[in-house]
Design brief:
With 173 residues, the chain is α/β, with parallel strands linked by helices. The chain has a domain of 115 residues: Double Stranded RNA Binding Domain. It contains 4 helices and 6 strands; from the N terminus they run αββααββββα. Strands 1-6-5-4-2-3 form a 6-stranded mixed β-sheet. Strand 5 and strand 6 form a beta hairpin. It is elongated and about 60 Å long. The two termini are 34 Å apart.
């Protein structure tokens, strides 16, 4: 029994290490098998509040993921792909009041040996919208949130990871 618990614990540990959180929503009346081609919706992408370099990184990642799913870029697409971004500062406060504390050595929670730690990170959220090209209606939306990095190599890898994790949910099952 113990030998079974170790691999399960390791799997849960590594699965929880990812700092990317994703969600998706879609129109349940749509048959996603009918869509085979796509194009990027330039007016929507132009409004995204992100640098042109990051826009290109995001577009390349979306393109690679959709191509891997068998969709093809087209001048007469069945789907239009757009995205937008948001950023916010996340503040985490941890209170570490631990120790033997108490007046006669009994109880937990006395402030000996503990303290408060505050950490701030900026999180970015990427929204990928998939729109029916004929009706111009949103049919699927994926959302991914992760900490932002100024390091170019980390940024490139994080964008690829976020886009990949979002598009794992497309098409809906």
């Amino acid at each position: 029994m113990k030998t079974l618990l170790i691999p399960i614990f390791a799997l849960l540990l590594f699965a929880s290490c990812s700092s990317v959180r994703v969600a998706s929503d879609y129109d349940t009346s749509v048959n996603f098998n009918n869509y085979t081609t796509y194009a990027f919706f330039k007016p929507g992408i132009d409004k995204a509040e992100v640098s042109d370099l990051d826009k290109r990184r995001i577009l390349r990642a979306i393109d690679a993921n959709l191509s891997a799913k068998g969709l093809q870029k087209s001048e007469t697409p069945s789907l239009l792909i757009s995205f937008f971004t948001k950023a916010k500062e996340r503040v985490d406060v941890y209170q570490n009041h631990y120790g033997w504390g108490g007046y006669w050595g009994w109880g937990w929670g006395h402030p000996w040996g503990g303290g408060t730690t505050v950490s701030k990170t900026t999180e970015g959220t990427l929204y990928i919208d998939i729109i029916d090209a004929k009706t111009n209606e949103l049919i699927w939306q994926g959302i991914g949130t992760a900490p932002l990095s100024r390091n170019m190599e980390k940024k490139e890898a994080m964008i690829q990871e976020v886009v990949s994790k979002i598009l794992e949910r497309y098409p809906p099952k």
